[in-house]
C-alpha cells in the first residue's frame, strides 16, 4: 500500500513538474544578466565621460551643472544606450539558448512568446515616453523613467518565468522613483539599476539554478 501511494505521489510530482515547465519559461541564464550588467556599467561610464568632457559636472558632487544638452550629446547618449541594449539582448539570447539546450527545452514556445509580449509592452510605452521627454527637453528625468518602465516590464513578465525576476523589477522601480526625486545623479542610478543590480541578480540566478543543476548532474552521473 505504501509503495502504491508513493507511486501515485511520484506521478503527481511529475505531472506538476511538467505543468510548471509548460507554463513558465525556465531557461533564463544568470550569465546573461551578469553580462547585461557589465555592458550597462560600460555604457554608464561612457555616458559620464561624454557629459563630463563636453558638458560639465561639478566634480565635487557629480551633479549636472545644467539641464540643457546639445542635440549631438543627446544623439550620442541614445546611440550609447542602443548599443548597450543590443549587446545585452545578444548575449542574453546566447546564454539563454545554451541553457535551454542543456535542459532539453524549446526556446521559442507559447510561454516565451507571452513573456516577450508582456515584457515589451511596458518597454515600448516607456521608449515612446522617453522620446516625448527628449522632445520637451526634459532629459534630466530620462534615467528615472527608463528604470521605472523597465522595472514595470520585468514585473509584468515575471508571471511567465521564475519569480526572482519580479524582485529585480521591484528594485528597478524603487531606484527609478528615488532617481526621480534625487535629480542630478541620473547616470549613477542608471549604473546602479541596470549595471550593479543586474550583476547581483545574474550571480544569484547562476548560483541558485545553473550551478546547482550542474552539481546535481555530476552527482547523478
Please explain how this structure is put together.
The chain is mainly α and 221 residues long. It has one domain (32-92, 106-210). Helix content is 79%, strand content 2%. A two-stranded antiparallel sheet has the order 1-2. Strand 1 and strand 2 (63-64) form a beta hairpin. Helix 5 (142-157) packs antiparallel against helix 6 (164-181). The longest helix has 35 residues, at 186-220. The model is unreliable at 11-25 and 58-67 (pLDDT under 50).
The portion of residues assigned to helices is over 70%
Number of extended strands: 2
Secondary-structure element series: HHEEHHHHH
Strand content: under 5%
A few lines on this structure:
The chain is built from 7 helices and 2 strands, in the order ααββααααα. By secondary structure, the protein is an all-alpha fold.
Any chance you could write out the topology, listing elements then pairs?
Elements: H1 2-23, H2 30-54, E1 57-58, E2 63-64, H3 71-103, H4 110-135, H5 142-157, H6 164-181, H7 186-220
Antiparallel strand pairs: 1-2
Helix pairs in contact: 2-3, 2-7, 4-5, 5-6, 5-7, 6-7
Short descriptors:
single chain, two-stranded antiparallel sheet, 2% strand, globular
